[in-house]
Write a structure and sequence with these properties.
The complex is a heterodimer of chains A (114) and B (515). Helix content of chain A is 12%, strand content 41%. Chain A has 114 residues and is mainly beta. Chain A has a four-stranded antiparallel β-sheet, with no helix packed on it. In chain A, strands 7-6-4-9 form a four-stranded antiparallel β-sheet, with no helix packed on it. The termini of chain A are far apart. Chain B folds into three domains: 3-246, 2-enoyl-CoA Hydratase, Chain A, domain 1 (Alpha-Beta Complex); 270-430 and 468-497, 2-enoyl-CoA Hydratase, Chain A, domain 1, CATH 3.90.226.10; 433-466, no CATH class. Chain B is α/β, with parallel strands linked by helices. The longest helix of chain B is centred in the first third of the chain and has 17 residues, at 104-120. In chain B, strand 3, helix 4 and strand 4 form a beta-alpha-beta unit. Classes of the chains: A mainly beta (114), B alpha/beta (515). The A-B interface holds A 1-2, 5-6, 9, 16, 19, 21-34, 37-38, 40, 53, 78-79, 103, 105-106 and B 187, 203-206, 217, 221-222, 278-281, 303, 305-307, 327-333, 337, 363-364, 366-370, 403, 431-432, 434-435, 438.
């Protein structure tokens, strides 16, 4: 695995790319880290994601329900803690994407507001 | 009992202790391609120079039936020796004895040899191969780690500290290497992490192999926690010996002087390496080799943030630390990782009286949301801090681009470089011509009938007027414009003339660098 990665900078055959900085295009190699960086996704206020991986143990809401900021939405058990997830906004629930007992990964979408 | 019998008794005791974990455990260690702790020490040190300390120390565990167990040397071998005649203190954790686990006596042996190194003012080399804290000894094991970390911090900048990871080094144990100057890793052998793959799987549900999480390559390329990557323990030991030849024994000394050797100019001709067009890449390490003794360059963190190159070389027999932008990778920009890498190395050189030679060719800082959010402001500031703070001789060669903030950061006259020279190809300007012309002549370009033509014309105007070293030279921001082939003699002279440099610093306990 590392064989191929190292040889990139040591062999003569290099795959140059161009990098734009202040309107100047530079011919250069890119690092693995640069190539693998995740594009920025603007925050969608309507979508509510898991801030930590864990298990959904209780759900207090369902679609069409109106909630106020601070109302409990669900319980996400993670890192041996029972995290009561509270609504960051006041609004109406559009859909719930998880069910009780479901394991979720970090950034999985849990529910969506209208 | 006569001397003979007493000596025989000593020899018997030594044989017992030296066996380590016994033949079964040693067989297991060797089966995965690892040397034993004792073999490692003997491979690194000069022949017959190792003098062992505390061979007969016994472990201090009293609970869980541990008092009935005999752990030879308590799982760590310590002592003194020499590397090519340079004195060092050394310790190696012995995985064959209770998994190299750290108990109170084990830690006590390590801290004793560390104290010794501080008193004797010699480098300390720690070989890590341990399953972690000896759980049976409870809080005493934690105390042991704490005592080691405290000493690592106290010794930082006083004696060189070298960590060699030749096995697992996990959990709290990783913080000793992290506090030391140089970390060596070996492919397939080294494993470093705070929380292992099993915990990550149970808690987070994410699966990853040990090698991918904290193997040698990950720490060499991605995290930057390791400074030297080797494919075998033998290669790693050669790297350690080489490093020791470049650095002084302690912060009161300078590195050993070697006989002066000319560079291999046939292989590395300084006039042929760098394209004059600032947009074209080349390997800056070839420039370093073209001006260093015997064209030998000992690179540090070769695979991490390769857009900046750091390492040791000798010029006229004297060790210098090179910091050079690498146009071959990411156009040589400063970013979060390259700033971290350079700043730490600059502080290392400053602590250990190693003059700094900076080779400049960079377009500026890497633009990007990821960079801004990763705190490139704070990390970039480290370079400014480290250069400004350093009082060792500082010599700067501006080869090509030196634009904007990058110009200031790369050991400019303003950060108190002692010598700044530029090649005729240097472009010292607030930004590249394309960017600058677009801003200065924005209205003229916008209102023109054929904006593209006017833009081209204005870029050329700006290029002719500012993309050179003479504007900066006119203000005295650079001391001289020299031909590339004069660089080596310029450096030799600068090093000679600054050999007695002494610079007062304001009285303070310590600064607050943007860690």
């Amino acid at each position: 695995m590392s064989e191929t990665k190292i040889s990139q900078t040591t062999t003569k055959k290099m795959s140059y790319k161009s990098l734009l900085i202040e309107n100047i295009k530079y011919r250069t190699l890119l690092t693995e880290k640069y190539k693998n960086k995740k594009p920025y996704v603007p925050k969608n206020e309507k979508v509510f994601q898991a801030f930590i991986p864990g298990t959904v143990t209780e759900i207090f809401i369902k679609p069409k329900k109106r909630v106020k900021e601070g109302d409990s939405l669900l319980v996400l058990e993670a890192m041996k803690m029972r995290n009561v997830i509270m609504s960051p906004v006041s609004g109406t629930i559009k859909s719930v994407y998880v069910s009780t007992g479901e394991r979720v990964k970090k950034n999985d979408i849990l529910l969506e507001f209208e | 009992m006569g001397l003979k019998r007493k000596t025989a008794d000593l020899k018997k005791r030594m044989r017992e202790a030296i066996k380590g974990g016994g033949s079964q455990a040693i067989k297991k260690q060797k089966a995965i391609g690892k040397k034993t702790a004792r073999e490692r020490i003997l491979s690194i040190l000069d022949a017959k120079s190792f003098h062992e300390y505390d061979l007969f120390v016994e472990h201090a565990g009293r609970d869980f039936d541990m008092d009935k167990k005999f752990l030879p040397g308590d799982g760590v071998i310590t002592g003194t020796g020499t590397i090519n005649g340079h004195p060092v203190c050394i310790y190696a954790q012995d995985f064959t004895v209770a998994g190299g686990s750290l108990g109170w006596a084990h830690a006590k042996k390590i801290t004793k040899i560390m104290d010794h190194a501080m008193k004797l003012k010699t480098p300390i080399i720690g070989i890590n191969d341990s399953g972690g804290a000896r759980i049976q000894e409870g809080v005493n094991a934690l105390a042991g780690y704490g005592e080691i970390f405290y000493r690592n911090t106290q010794a930082s900048g006083v004696i060189p500290q070298i960590s060699v990871i030749l096995g697992p080094c996990a959990g709290g144990a990783v913080y000793s290497p992290a506090l030391t100057d140089f970390v060596f890793v070996v492919e397939g052998v080294s494993k470093m992490f705070i929380t292992g793959p099993e915990v990550i799987k149970t808690v987070l549900g994410e699966e990853i192999t040990m090698e991918e999480l904290g193997g040698a390559w990950v720490h060499s390329e991605t995290t930057g926690n390791a400074h030297f990557f080797a494919r075998s323990e033998e290669e790693c030991f050669d790297q350690i010996k080489n490093l020791i030849s470049f650095i002084p024994w302690n912060n009161d000394k300078t590195a050993e002087r070697f006989p002066k050797k000319p560079p291999k100019t046939k292989q590395y001709n300084i006039d042929d390496i760098m394209p004059a067009d600032p947009r074209q890449p080349y390997d800056v390490r070839d420039v370093i080799k073209s001006i260093s003794d015997d064209s030998e360059f000992f690179e540090i963190q070769e695979y991490f943030a390769a857009n900046i190159v750091i390492g040791f070389a000798r010029i006229a027999g004297q060790t210098v630390g090179f910091v050079a932008n690498q146009p071959l990778v990411l156009a040589g920009v400063l970013d979060v990782d390259s700033s971290d890498k350079a700043a730490r190395f600059i502080r290392y050189c400053d602590s250990f009286n190693i003059p700094l030679v900076t080779l400049v060719d960079l377009p500026g800082y890497l633009p990007g949301i990821d960079q801004e959010h990763a705190g490139v402001i704070r990390h970039g500031a480290k370079v400014l801090y480290a250069y400004s703070e350093a009082t060792v001789p500082k010599i700067t060669v501006i080869m090509r681009k030196a634009y904007g903030g990058g110009y200031i950061a790369m050991c400019s006259h303003h950060l108190r470089a002692d010598f700044v020279c530029a090649w005729p190809t240097a472009e010292i300007a607030v930004m590249g011509p394309e960017g600058a012309a677009n801003i200065i002549f924005r209205n003229e370009i916008k209102n023109a009938e054929n904006p593209d033509e006017i833009r081209k014309q204005k870029i050329k105007e700006y290029k002719d007027k500012f993309a050179n070293p003479y504007v900066a030279a006119a203000y005295g921001y650079i001391d001289a414009v020299i031909e590339p082939k004069e660089t080596r003699s310029f450096l030799i002279h600068a090093l000679e003339i600054s050999s007695q440099k002494s610079q007062a610093v304001p009285r303070k306990k310590h600064g607050i660098p943007p860690f």
